[in-house]
Amino acid sequence: MRKKIVLIMLCVLLVATALVGFAACNKDDGIKITVWVGEGTDGLTKQLIDEFNATNEFGIKFNATIEMVSESKAAGDALSKKDSAADIFTFSQDQLARLVAGGMLMNLGSTSTSFIEENNDAASVEAAKIGGEIKAFPFTADNGFFMYYDKDVFKGEKENDLNDLDAILTDCKAAGKNFSMNLDQEGGAWYAASFFYATGCVSEWTTDANGAFINYNDTFNSDEGVIAMKGIKKVLSSGCYSGSDKIGEFNAGTESAVVISGIWDYNAAKTALGNNLGIAPLPSFWVDENGNDACDEGETHQLVSFLGRKMLGIKPQKDANMSRYLQALARFLTSKECQQKRFDAVGWGPSNKELQETDAVKASECLKVLAEEKSVNQGQYPQSWWAEVQSLAGNANAEEATIREKLGIYYGNLPGVMQQG
């Protein structure tokens, strides 16, 4: 019996020594990790990791190499690089299923899942799930889009035009300026879908626990989808369309009077227009009887923004201790305190439900506009779905027969799109 006790004590001592050794051997130089974050947040992320190093319960220090990789490209880079991908990275919500299917997200422990559920709003928690299981840490709830505009163009009575897409296009053209909204270029599907949701269409996709798409409900190929395509056609054929969501459009070439973009561009927009910067919800549109619309003349369709989240993911680790430490770092980086610091530094809207109720967050001009306008919570969509919707938008400047043909082709492609993931 005494031998068994001695053996048990020796095992405990060896485990404890290993744990201490793991931390001690890294205390001087730090545990080396790579972190990918979106542009403009690298300096803040370094400060936050330094704070974690000084305060964490494990007494460890991360020596982090921080690289800027846009949230929209992080999943593609992680999947293509695999072993050399970042240990922790931020990404857009729509990349979640793709990352899970590619085996690039660590399974989270109960402490992390409880932390996510307890601290974030219900929609953000749901957005972090695949097959009912939380896979990543949400840290913003502001990935929507709205209208930046030049007050010098929309002043006086023309300010009343801001909820009418037709009037906006007329005013832009009269001023010799562009209406900038990416509908048919790379990334255009994210904006083009707003026309389909405006007319009542849906495109909802279901995944299994492994991130594979197993079902969908899509009504884009319908009379409502035709109306949506005709709404896109109004923009494409307006004579003032610029297929861009870049704030630089306010200063480039003939300049733009309107740019459809999101909160991430606020500082650039303010720099470009100063006191002339205006912010407004997405406008409405209507298609008249001459367009053989299924609706009565004058019925309006309010453009609907996607509303998504930014997530923080952790690459699977071979070492159990490393997994624990990285999850602790992730909890810190997505905590109420760190979300507050991001809001203060770059204006990002928090997913933390307590922060959402603070006066400062409620006073944010961009977040108020996002709250005012119609939106749908962004779900998961197969990667090739985005290309299909972008192709639809690119073919909207056509006669109704062609529009219906393109919608039919789109719908016929969906089973294959689901299999491609």
The amount of helix comes to: 40-55%
Q: Radius of gyration in whole Å, from Cα?
A: 24 Å
Strand ordering within the main sheet: 2-1-3-17-6
Number of helices: 16
Under CATH, the homologous superfamily of the largest domain reads Periplasmic binding protein-like II
The biggest sheet, with number of strands, parallel, antiparallel or mixed sense and barrel status, is: 5 strands, mixed
Architecture blueprint of SSEs:
Blueprint: H1 2-27, E1 31-37, H2 42-55, E2 62-68, H3 71-81, E3 88-92, H4 96-101, H5 110-119, H6 122-127, E4 129-130, E5 133-134, E6 137-138, E7 146-150, H7 165-174, E8 178-180, H8 189-198, E9 203-207, E10 213-218, H9 223-236, E11 241-242, E12 256-261, H10 266-273, E13 277-280, E14 284-285, E15 301-302, E16 305-307, E17 310-314, H11 320-333, H12 336-346, H13 359-363, H14 365-372, E18 375-377, H15 383-394, H16 400-420
Helix pairs in contact: 8-9, 8-15, 9-16, 15-16
